[in-house]
């Protein structure tokens, strides 16, 4: 495979050239092959060679005389030619590095470069080039099943993202664009897990036989594909567990779930169960959302008669809180002491559990945690969802011990918590108030509200009192009294009917509460006494 190197420092250029000439990569037919290396110390000459040879990979310095590496990237690209670029950056060039990622550069390497790191990055890109070529070949096949084959490749790619944290590399965005899935990296989405309600739908309440279940699942898939088209961008695929997985934009997921349930019941005469994840906003958070959807589906199949079960409504019932989840709750509450304890437990868990046996693995675990954090709370931050910056990579790559990682994570999480606390605690309270206003006439509890907004009941109670000056119970009573006064003034309903409408089953208790809050009995208020 051809690769062009562009570097105006002769010693570095020769070193990179030798390193890549010695490199052996996996060939297209399973054997090994060497790299065809073209090295240039002049960017103008390099550009001519790139236009002539069209190498799949280009390795270029950023700061050069006559033409910068970023200019080279822009000028080399064509609609029908999109090579993979790696930039060579000095420690002072990170602003250039950020710009390069915006231009679609796949990776970067710092000077002085490490030979093994360079080999590893090139091997990764060679593998990516070959995979994309194979995908294009299959997608563009001339036989009538080419489209089905392409969908199968897409589903395999998506299932990989669902089951394993995505690598923090820019070429992931290119893969998403290839499958027209870039909306997953640009906004909020939810995952839906779908299966048929096996236990209750058979004759005389007996479980449906496995063969019948498979036929029902097949029908759900066919219907699901049609429904998904109504709510694009969205995608449906089959999970290894035989359930159907749908990924949809957050704004459309509720309507999609309700529509799928309705259509299956009307046309197939049996029930589905749908588990809906929480809202995620980064591709790195997809495995967590996938797990949430499956957990909600398990609860829907075993613990409820409702067709649609939302993870955020049953979170405390479907899984124990893990250390990372506890840390995120501490961050949302901006509690420095709990953040410190949470960081301690998370990092110690990595080390003691063997998940971070090396400094490189420790860095990767930390990066994955930060991506998960951004995906969970990023929508609440001013300026939208934060991005994993090159500067953050650099800081992580300089951390080699667990105590250093704890200090870094504590400072980073505390900063995020401070931003959340300063700008969005009121948003949480407003969400809570809306929920109460929609349900004040029912027998609602603080625990239900806490599960809805994703906080503990104790913390929500404190936050609500601090932001509104009143307690949850007092706020409910005030809404009921306001509604009662309106009904007394504007309707001819009897007092006991009004009591029932605003949430009281005991008319005497309603009358006592009304007089305490309003200074008059309901009858006195109605007749203006």
From TrEMBL:
Q: Which residues carry this modification: 4-aspartylphosphate?
A: 61
Which SUPFAM superfamilies does this one have?
CheY-like, Homeodomain-like
> Locate the Response regulatory domain: which residues?
2-126
Carries keyword Metal-binding? no
CDD domains xref list: REC_YesN-like
Q: Which Gene Ontology MF annotations are present?
A: DNA-binding transcription factor activity; sequence-specific DNA binding
UniProt keywords (A-Z) are: DNA-binding, Phosphoprotein, Transcription, Transcription regulation
**Which BP terms from GO are recorded?**
phosphorelay signal transduction system
Q: Where does the source fall among the domains of life?
A: Bacteria
Give the HTH araC/xylS-type domain ranges: 430-528
**InterPro entries linked to this entry:** CdaR_GGDEF (IPR041522), CheY-like_superfamily (IPR011006), Homeodomain-like_sf (IPR009057), HTH_AraC (IPR018060), HTH_AraC-typ_CS (IPR018062), Sig_transdc_resp-reg_receiver (IPR001789), Tscrpt_reg_AraC-type_HTH (IPR020449)
Q: What is this protein called?
A: Response regulator
Please tell me whether the keyword Transferase is annotated for this protein. no
Q: Which organism's genome codes for this protein?
A: Paenibacillus antri
């Amino acid at each position: 495979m051809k690769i062009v190197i562009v570097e105006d420092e002769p010693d570095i250029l020769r070193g990179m050239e030798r390193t890549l000439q010695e490199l052996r990569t996996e060939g297209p037919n399973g054997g090994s092959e060497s790299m065809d290396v073209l090295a240039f110390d002049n960017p103008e000459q390099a550009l001519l060679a790139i236009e002539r040879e069209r190498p799949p990979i280009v390795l270029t310095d950023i700061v050069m005389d006559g033409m910068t590496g970023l200019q080279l990237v822009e000028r080399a690209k064509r609609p029908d030619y999109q090579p993979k670029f790696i930039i060579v950056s000095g420690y002072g060039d990170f602003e250039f590095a950020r710009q390069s990622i915006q231009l679609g550069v796949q990776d970067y390497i710092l000077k002085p470069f490490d030979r093994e790191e360079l080999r590893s990055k090139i091997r990764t890109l060679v593998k990516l080039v070959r995979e994309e070529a194979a995908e294009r070949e299959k997608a563009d096949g001339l036989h009538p099943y080419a489209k089905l084959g392409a969908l199968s490749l897409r589903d395999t790619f998506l299932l990989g993202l669902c089951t394993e944290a995505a690598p923090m590399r820019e070429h992931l965005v290119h893969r998403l664009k290839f499958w027209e899935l870039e909306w997953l990296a640009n906004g909020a989405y939810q995952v839906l897990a779908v299966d048929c309600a096996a236990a209750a739908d058979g004759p005389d309440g007996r479980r449906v036989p496995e063969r019948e279940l498979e036929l029902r699942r097949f029908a759900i898939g066919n219907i699901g594909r049609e429904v998904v088209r109504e709510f694009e961008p969205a995608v449906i695929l089959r999970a290894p567990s035989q359930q159907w997985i749908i990924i949809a934009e957050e704004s459309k997921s509720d309507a999609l779930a309700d529509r799928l349930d309705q259509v299956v019941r009307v046309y197939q005469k049996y029930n589905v169960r749908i588990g809906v994840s929480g809202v995620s906003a980064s591709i790195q958070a997809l495995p967590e959302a996938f797990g949430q959807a499956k957990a909600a589906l398990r609860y829907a199949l075993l613990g409820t008669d409702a067709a649609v079960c939302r993870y955020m409504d049953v979170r405390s019932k479907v899984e124990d809180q893990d250390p990372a989840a506890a840390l995120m709750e501490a961050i949302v509450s901006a509690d420095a002491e709990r953040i410190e304890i949470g960081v301690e437990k998370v990092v110690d868990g990595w080390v003691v559990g063997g998940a971070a046996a090396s400094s490189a693995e420790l860095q990767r675990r930390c990066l994955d945690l930060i991506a998960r954090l951004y995906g969970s709370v990023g929508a609440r931050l001013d300026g939208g969802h934060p991005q994993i910056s090159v500067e953050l990579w650099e800081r992580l790559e300089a951390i080699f011990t667990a105590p250093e990682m704890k200090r870094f994570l504590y400072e980073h999480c505390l900063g995020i918590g401070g931003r959340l606390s300063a700008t969005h605690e009121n948003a949480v309270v407003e969400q809570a108030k809306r929920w109460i206003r929609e349900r004040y006439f029912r027998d609602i509890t603080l625990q239900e509200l806490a599960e809805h907004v994703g906080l503990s009941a104790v913390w929500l109670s404190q936050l609500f009192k601090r932001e509104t000056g009143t307690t949850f119970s007092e706020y409910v009573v005030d809404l009921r009294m306001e509604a009662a006064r309106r009904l007394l003034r504007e309707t001819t309903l009897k007092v006991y009917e009004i009591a029932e409408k605003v949430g009281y089953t005991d008319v005497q208790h309603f009358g006592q509460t009304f007089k305490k809050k309003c200074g008059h009995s309901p009858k006195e208020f109605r007749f203006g006494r």
